[in-house]
Structure formats: C-alpha cells, structure tokens
TrEMBL record:
Keywords: Cell membrane, Membrane, Transmembrane, Transmembrane helix, Transport
InterPro entries: BPD_transp_1_N, MetI-like, MetI-like_sf
Taxonomic placement: Bacteria, Pseudomonadati, Pseudomonadota, Alphaproteobacteria, Rhodobacterales
Protein name listed in UniProt: ABC transporter permease
Regions that span the bilayer: 7-30, 104-125, 137-160, 180-199, 238-265, 285-310
Span of domain ABC transmembrane type-1: 98-307
Pfam assignment, any one: BPD_transp_1
GO CC annotations, alphabetized: plasma membrane
Primary location recorded for the protein, binned into one broad class: membrane
UniProt membrane topology term: Multi-pass membrane protein
Compartment annotation: Cell membrane
GO biological process, one term: transmembrane transport
Length: 319
C-alpha cells in the first residue's frame, strides 16, 4: 500500500509540473503582446512607454528560459505576483477566497453523498420498479435544470416564501458562525442538487453491477441476509466508481461555481477568476488557474488512495 501511495504521489507531482509548464507555454503561444493587450482599452492603442514599463515589470524582456525559471520559482514559493488592479498580492486573495469556494463544494458533496448513495442503492435493489422510475425521473430533472434556475427557485421557496434562510450574502465564520452556516446552506444545496443526480445514477449503476458478481451470489447461497450482503459485500465495492466520479466532479466545481456565487453573492474563487479575466489581470488569472489545476490533481490523488483502501487489489495491480 505504501508503495502504491508513493507511486501515485510521484505521478501527481509529475502532473502538477506538466500543468504549470503548460500554463507558461500557452501564455507565450497566444498571439500578441500581453502587456499591450492588458493596457489597451476600448480599441485605443496603449502608450508605448507604458507598454515597455509593463513588459519590464512582467519580466517579458528576459529570455524565455529565464522567464520559465521565474515562473516555476514563483509557483514553488507561492508567489504569483501582485494584482494589476489594486496591487495586492495574488496569493493573499486566493487564500482568502479559496476556502469559501471549498466550503460550498464540500457542503454540496456531503449532501449529495448522504442522499445520493442510499437512493441509488435503493433504486438498484428495486430496479425497474416504481421507486426506481421515480428516482431516475428526479435525477434526470435535476441534471437538466440549469444551476441558476435552481438557485432562483430555492431563493423563492426558502428565502421569500418560507423565510427560513437568507437569500444570499456572506458573513465570516469567525464573526457569526450560525449566520455563516445559514448563508452557506442555499448555495451548497443548489450545487448539491445536480451533484446528487450524478451520485445517485452512478450508485445505481455500480450497485447493479456488483449485485451480479460471483461473490454476491455465493453470499446469497450461504443464506446471508440482504442487509448483511449489501453492507459487507455490495456497498463497499460499489463505492469505488462513485468516489472516483465524486472526486472528478468536485475538481470541476472548484472553478465552475461562478453562477452559484453570482446568484447568492458569495465571494468565492470562481467569481474572482471571472473578474480577473474581465480585467485582463495576468497575475491573478495565472495564479487562480494554477491553484485550481493543482487542487484538481490533488483531489484525484486522494480519490486513488481512498479507492485503494476500499479495495486493496487496486494497489497490487497499479503499483
């Protein structure tokens, strides 16, 4: 197991290096002068002196290999430079906003797993029955409904009609823990609805597959009860593909909660990325993209390790 974890860690580090290098190369492959693009507004050409000063500040006058070393050094030290908009360190803004986005994603993943795995398992047990059809219908509706529509509906129901939760906003946890959790519930729940549909469908398919395995038939032949078979033989093995999909979905959501943060006025990382792109703030965009990419790789590493703990055969095959 330790050999497998070490192997997967090395692969993850290699992928991080690939991502950081790819970001650097892509930025230099884009046609045009980045400094000139950043300073040009409304089709008006930028002042040549300002362009030259910005190029010097960004280190674009140095040879490519020196720029790459500086790029890697900044990544390893966590120094992504300063924002062009307000001069604040980019890493500080990322450190401030990233936990807020992770809160929404973690809350959504928790809710989706709590409701998705049991319902998917129940649908598999009652395959082709009325309960299975109803659960499949609800998951289809949840998947096909845009997130901004879901957000608007939950605000209408829980904030305006029932008046039990605030419609949006943000309060730091340290300032008011209860109010923070109340403000977090609706955005996390909105993200959880689509994620629940994915987890439910994956759980159903995975449980159906495991129910056909030989060791499950053997357990039935030995006279074990259904609940014991599900608990000891089915659910644990069925969780492996479910956790894999959950990890991939969580990685995608790190940079994909833009609409949710906008609807609920939640100051997270996704909204920060959109504002940085709109302002053409080069250091902010690079810092956020690399942070999201590294987190995505890290989540996949965690999923691989958890899967190996659930099924030790994985570590024997892949190490």
């Amino acid at each position: 197991m330790l050999r497998y974890i070490a192997y997967r860690t090395l692969v993850a580090l290699f992928l991080v290096w690939i991502v950081v290098t790819a970001v650097f190369l892509l930025l230099h492959l884009i046609p045009g002068d980045p400094a000139e693009l950043l300073l040009s507004q409304g089709g008006i050409a930028a002042d040549p002196e300002a362009v030259a000063a910005l190029r010097e500040k960004m280190g674009l006058n140095a040879p490519l290999w020196q720029q790459y070393i500086a790029h890697m050094g900044g990544f390893l030290s966590g120094d992504f430079g300063e924002s062009f908009r307000d001069g604040t360190p980019v890493i500080g803004q990322i450190a401030l906003r990233l936990p807020r986005t992770l809160e929404v994603i973690a809350g959504a993943a928790l809710l989706a797993t709590i409701f998705g795995v049991p319902l998917g398992t129940y649908a598999a047990i009652r395959a082709d029955g009325k309960a299975d059809a109803l659960i499949s219908l609800l998951s289809s509706v949840a998947l096909s409904t845009p997130v901004f529509v879901v957000g608007s509906v939950v605000i209408l129901i829980f904030a305006q009609e029932l008046k039990i939760l605030p419609a949006g906003g943000f309060v730091p946890f340290s300032q008011n823990p209860l109010e923070h959790l109340k403000l977090l519930l609706l955005p996390a729940g909105t993200v959880a609805i689509a994620l629940w549909a994915v987890i439910t469908r994956m759980s159903r398919a995975s449980v159906l597959e495991v129910l056909q395995r030989d060791y499950v038939r053997t357990a039935r032949a030995k006279g074990l009860g259904r609940s014991r078979i599900l608990r000891r033989h089915v659910v644990r093995n069925a969780l492996i593909p479910v956790l894999t999909v959950l990890g991939l979905e969580m990685g995608t959501l790190i940079g994909g909660t833009v609409l949710v943060e906008f609807v609920f006025n939640w100051p997270g990382l996704s909204g920060y990325l959109v504002a940085a792109v709109d302002a053409r703030d080069y250091p902010e965009v690079v810092g956020i993209v690399m942070t999201i990419s590294v987190l995505f790789v890290f989540l996949n590493l965690v999923v691989d390790v958890v899967n190996a703990l659930l099924d030790p055969r994985i570590s024997l095959v892949k190490s």
